[in-house]
Amino acid sequence: MNLLLYKCNIHYYLREKYFGKAKHIAQQALSQFPDSTQFEFYNGLASIFEGQIQRGINELTPLQSNKDTQLAAVMALVYAYKTSNIGDRDVIHNFEAKLKEEKKQATATSFYYAALFLSLAEKFEKASEYINKTLRKDQKNLDVIVLKGWNDMFMNQGNIPMSVLDCLELGVTKNDKDLEALLGLAKFKHLTNDFESSNSILDRLIVQNPRLVIPLIEKMRNELALKKWDAVQDTLERIFFIDHNNVEALKVKIFITLCKNSDCIEAADQLNKLFSILENEESDNGYQFYTATQIFSKVCGRSSAVLTQIYRFAQYASEMYPNNVEYLSEVGNQCILQGKYKDALNFFKAASKIDSNSITALCGLTLCQMSENGPTEQISQQVELLFEMQGTNKLPVLYLLSAQLNVKNTSKAIAFLNTALETRVNLATSYPFSLAYVNQLDPDFLLDVYKEYRKHLPKKPFVIVGYIMYSQEASNPSVANCFKLLNAVCEACPGLIAALYELAKLKFLFGYANDAQILAQQISESDSTHAGSQFLLAQIYIQQQAFTKAAQCLEMCLSYNFKVRDSAMYHFLNGVILKSVNQIQEALSSFMTSLQICTSKIASNLNRLYESDLNIIDKATLYLQIIDIQAMLGHFAEAGKIMQEAIQEFSFTSEETRLLIARADLALKKGDIDNALDLLNEVKPGQPYYFQAHSKMAHIHLKEKNDRVMFTNCFKEIVSNHPMADAHTMMGDAFMSIHEPEQAAESYEAALKGNPKDVQLIKKHCTALVKMHEYDKATQYYENAIRQLNDDELMFEYLELLIKLKRYEKVDSTISHELNQVYNKEKDIVSLKRRVRYLLLQTKSRELKNPTAGNMALILAEARDIQTSIVKRIEIDSKGDLQEEKLLLAKVLCMMAKVKSLKEPAVAANLYAEALIHAPRDPETLLALAKLYANMNIPEKCEQTCAVLLNADPNNESAAVMMADLAFRKVDLETAQRHLNQILSVKPTSWEALAQLIEVQWRLGKLSECEQQLETAKQTLSDQDDPDYEYCAGLSALCGGRANAALRHLNAARRSPRFARGAARRMVLLCLSHHAADAIADAFAGGADDSDTRLLALKTAEKLLVEVSPSDRKPLHALLQLASRSKQQAERILQELLPLASDNGYQDDPYMILAIASAYNIIKQPTRAKNILKRTISSIPWTPENADGLERCWLEVAESQINSGRMDAAKELLTKVLNHNHSCASAYQYLGYLAEKEQNYKSASHNYDNAWSYAGKSDLSVGYKLAHAYLKQKKYPECIVVCRHVLSVQPDYPKIKKEILEKAKANLRT
Question: Which domain range does residue 394 map to?
């Protein structure tokens, strides 16, 4: 290290008051440069500054003979003798005389060292004089110019002149490697809050001097000022790599551990290490022990583990320098923080004996007396005296003492507290955010100020039930100051649980429940054993009527501290929760226990600890809850008795009006509506609970008298008497409850003028706008609110609205912008959770925009990775709701599985299995996995999964449907029928079960048996136009051969979210089938001719195709185009479909194969058509999804076999068709035809009869063939019946009358 580097290091550590470090470097320099007297000078200065006066005098005395340092040495000796009691006045007089002589003959260098000493001794104005003297002798001396910059910077801290910058920049200009000038320039930028510029200078120094720790320390301070916690951590590691015992870095590390990470135990260990390092490196530096005591005692939230360690620092400093009043008084302060007031009193007395005018010691004595005796006249006089002694700059603690003395005079007390707060904040704001800032802010003192403020705030309830409500009162000056105070503390110490807890309670009490919930959850994540935060969360959840969550919080609270059972609040909250779940008797027991505790004379310490003692409002609520339950139980005498007790307790208090409202409630329960209204009308504007009384009047008018006009008039009266935001909000809520969103929106808008930043109010307003279908206005309002408030919940609600409006591009761009922000996987859990929510919303939006797009897997993979890391962090830290996060991880895995299920079913199955690890026996996951196994054609695993699901939830409708589906897939139709009947006996409107039962019964040939279930379902419905019922009715009509009725019902079913696509698909197939002409004519076309009707059928099918599932759309579209029988069209379709025939998604699609075969037939290539159709017989497994398509393919093959004379093969295939569908009219028709060919008219008539019946007697050609078979079989009566039916439908049906009917009649007569 060169001489300049040594010099710069020593200057830095002397300014920072690390005198031990400065001495160590000076001694190193002397060993390298033994002839350099300046390092002997620095060594002596460091000894004097740290309090080792005699040693310093001994080291400086020889330097009086040195030409360069003699003036500074004499000055330092004068300073040493004056700050100690070791020399008499004559010695000091002699040195002062010598000093005058030295000044006369001093050189520029002598003046420089004198100025340097004065600047380091913090005599900045005097130093400025000597700097000017030096410059008069040597204007170009860069060392002096740079020293001037440093000196003026500290002399004018808080308002630094630009001349400082000129000096430092001149130094850098002359020598761009001047370390002292560059560090000064970086410090100037730091103190003027230009932290980025400061860092850029420091980065240059770090590159130039990679082993020098000073630039890294300054960079760490810049990053701390910017609150870039991750960057601070990185820089700390770099500092410790160079100097593993660096004191300043360790202090910052302890601060982060305490004030960011809320880890008092780790901080205590680190303080122990700091003590050891200071004891080793700064053993004589009382100042460092003293400042460490001050900083960390003020930010530890009075943690006993931390205060025990800190006490050692104060004790060490006071024992090292027993005559230092400040050090001794600090030991007294530490005793106060630990609640040891008697010990504190002794230390303050000892300090005041040393210096009877020490304000610190006298304030300490007064604090101890106040703690012991409370406010007295003597203490009041002492405080007045201390005010006079102090002059202009008063200690903030005096204002706090004055407020405590004026506790009964609210206006005076608040004025003193305001001044105490302003003084502390002003002291702190003269520094950038740093350890010095926090020391001046003094969070512990501010929390004491807040506790005093709290005595003068409006009373608010902690338990919100019934008509009690919170109003936001941040406009109240005292409340606003409390928010300012707590926000300042929480911003400085974001992990200080004591401050966060107070802020959470304050926000809850004054109407900001959502903010309070976030803070309480943050506390719970930082310290899972903090019972107070669980109490507060329970109170918040009760206000939100989330009673299950409230119960969980109370259980957690009890598990952390069983003594909470002794608090009135615990039993009160428990009673409210029990009442919510109709455990009335148990609730009454809890309320009575709470009442006994809070009326007992011995106050519980636990109550005071968790704010769980009941204030007057909560106590009144407790009485009223007991009265309400007694009335519910019909114990009106007991209720009256409790009411009398309450009247005695609360007469002439703010809660008296509530008893009037309670009497109105009792009257209402007895059926005396008019008396209830008269009682409520006694509450006049301006009285407490006027809002609640008139709100209750309004609801009585609505519910009991069904008078909507009086209902709205009551709220209008409230607003006219109290035109504030909360009244307008209440009126808006009232309008929403009677479905008047237009008027509600007006009320909310009026409320927002008074409270434009209320997030809940903004949400309500936007909800009203959406109800009015003012979607553009709602989205604009959301966007403006998000810009102003930057609220996450508003953003997510806004995105959900955009998704509902199908504005997917806007959703995607908004989320992409948020996701593209700088992202660090080590971020706090809240940021990670927010990112997961954005990713899931983006997936939802993209899936709705294009379900077949494959761009969701990567998004979900990132969401899974982040959510997995969240779960792991919560498992390690125990900070947060682990079960809730595991359920979300399971949800993400299920979404990934759904995306993968089509192309990678095995991967999807593994993902579902992984989801079940995090959410065991989750019904939705088990059901999805069972469906996947069914689609993968692994029935055994599907059945096992369903069995697990039914074991977990025996009444699970979906699982029972799946079991039926499994039996269906095995073509075990009887078992499927039994399962489905069992479901429908319990729940007649289980539409999936009913739809499947219709198909099963149809395939069993027992379709008529479904009529009863359809009728039962219809009678159970409240809405006769239910689209799900329409689908089932349409399916029944379709299976029964009633095409026109089927089309009508299925058209109505297109409104069903569950069956819309299925209905559209069946309508398309029906339009394309050979029944379409008649059906469309009946359903849509009226009297159109046959060709027009068929054209209409095809147009209808084309329109419906967009509603069909994308995976079914292509083959159906191909069949639609082939209906024109165009050869060119057929060739084009073949070009499109043949490449897809081998694709995983389509190779087993029977309609795809049918379309290709039809195209081959059109272009006169029947052999290829036959070959591709044969694939469906052996290669494609039968499934319910493929059943209809396979049936049509098999019938096509059978027809071609009949045409080619292969009768036995055709019979075998037709039998296979009938094994899968006993109601297949076409199969029976072909079998009848074959029997007819063989002249087996008995078999022919049997098959034709089945074809005729199962087609709903709608295919007249089958009727003709059946009549002909009966004629040949000589069953003339049956023949005549069929003929008459055919002729009733179509009187001019060819040949049947003459060739069959007349012959049958003639034969019957003979």
Answer: 381-451
